[in-house]
Amino acid sequence: MSDETDPGDGRPLRVAVIGAGPAGIYTAEALTRRAPVPVTVDLLDRLPTPFGLVRHGIAPDHPKMRAIRDTLHRALDDPGVRFVGNVEVGTDITLDDLRAHVDAVVYTYGAALDRPLSIDGEDLPGSLAATDLVAWYCGHPDADRARVEASLEGVRRAVVVGVGNVALDVARVLARAPQELEPTDMPQHVLDALAAAPVEEVTVLGRRGPAQASFTTMELRELDGLEQATVLVDPADLELSPAAEERIAGDRNATRNLAVLREWTGHRPEPDRVRLHLRFHRRPVRLLGADRVTGVEVERTTVDDEGRAVGTGEYEVLPADLVVRSVGYRGQGLPGLPVDQRSGTVPNEDGRVLRDGAPSAGEYVAGWIKRGPTGVVGTNKHDARETVASLLADAEAGVIRPSGDRDDLVQTLRARGAEPVLLEDWRAIDAAEVALGATRGRARTTLHERESLLSAVRAAAGR
Ligand code: NAP
Questions:
Q1: Which residues make up the binding site for FAD (predicted)?
Q2: Which domain holds residue 284?
Q3: Within 13 Å, how many C-alpha atoms sit on residue 25's CB side?
């Protein structure tokens, strides 16, 4: 190790990564496997479980995608990486205190907030953010069970606003037959509530045209394979302006999407099957209802040459007793770490956090809180490597300095009454979920309460 890269006393470079989702795990992996100097990583998460949106975002009926956790687990098993769950930065430990334990911090805690539509009626019962519904069906401990389950009760017609992949996840889960969801790791109360909802119609609503939809073709095509739903597309929605034709010609995803949508214009509603409408050129202007949602008023739109939705002044009402807005995620700051309110990201340059426009020594960012809520799980790998390259270059240049000589982080946390969950504790949770699933012949059932997660840890530790 050269003098420049040695943080001062011959010990490894010590890095805390905040957020154990894919971005955090790829960051830890890049730090421990690709650095030319020894690095140790404390991988913190406010939940007692790792994997972030792989656990609490990827739809449970996508088991192959969720299996990426097995690959991510390899980084957790690296002796240079220590998973420290159930620790909230800002509550259990301040950012300043944490920084005193390590030489550098990488923020990878994602973008957990929903974006609002900012229209009348949005707060009515029966109006949910996709983030609420997704958290609930994935068994996130902070999900608002009461609100989501009350909103689902008796639902016949649902409208999902937005045409991204999350909107398709939500529409698919709502339209699935109970027997399709039965083998998943959804908590039992989720399976029961979804099975009890008498859904007859789900409408996915794009404010622009099919040329501008952001869902991907594989996810779109999957809608046609649902056991009890028929996908319905109005050919009038697929008529393209010359500008849209041009856009589609240069965009393979849009070209494929349009081909799939065109195939479906011949579908007709069938008795006893959920009608799964994909509708475009309609933007919601207001949610209707007195004590709960009864419909969505939408304005018809055209798309201008710059690709913006322009209202036509024609309105219609889509009856609905559930409206789920799936219009993107938004990041928030941590105490001591501001975010740009407009973008919902931490200002940065190649992953170096900018404070007052200048790089802040020893502070980095990766994943959705760095670049915004876009891309698939694998996108975070490249993103994390870029950030780690900046961090290692700074270490090499002597920008990162050893910060103090404090007690071990986990001891400090325990001394303050926190209950950090380490890798062997997570293994106990993992085993408890597998055992719970086995009671109903499933591979796993997600434990959805913080207390049950911690009970599994305590039971395994004999506490
Ligand atoms: P997204 O792809 O950005 O989609 C957001 C949708 O909301 C867009 O259709 C957008 O339309 C619409 N929208 C935004 N504001 C609106 C408004 N005020 N009124 C009506 N519509 C509005 O985001 P996402 O679906 O949340 O997904 C986030 C990321 O995760 C994406 O990169 C996605 O691919 C990824 N993801 C992947 C998978 C998978 O691979 N299976 C699954 C889930 C998520 P405009 O385009 O008109 O703004």
A1: 23, 53, 89, 368
A2: 116-327
A3: 25
